[in-house]
Design brief:
The protein is α+β, with helices and mostly antiparallel strands and about 110 residues long. Helix content is about 20%, strand content about 30%. The chain starts with 6 loop residues before the first helix and ends in a 5-residue tail after the last strand.
Length: about 110
Amino acid sequence: MPPGLKAGASSGSSGDATGVAALYEENAVLAYPPGGRTVGREAIRELWATVLAGGPRFEPEQPLPTLVSGDIALTSTPPKDGAGARAQVVRRQPDGSWLRLIDQPEFAPPAR
């Protein structure tokens, strides 16, 4: 997994919405709440502030192998909460860090 992405669970567990939002590019797209989209770092920060006000705890999840092509990477994890899967498209920044460009934190397999 690209460095810097693991900070999400620790920032979320500590209630730091600004820290979580800092993991996203300025114009990132977050597919949350379910069925919706939150666009832009400030809107993502506001969303996380609301979510984190309830005091949720986040457990680190073991990532699947990251796929990297140049400055773009696809990361994913099978979630511990049974939400189906999590996937993020991240982009390497000029300083070498990675920020989320597209984040799909929850999706379930299609109904059969």
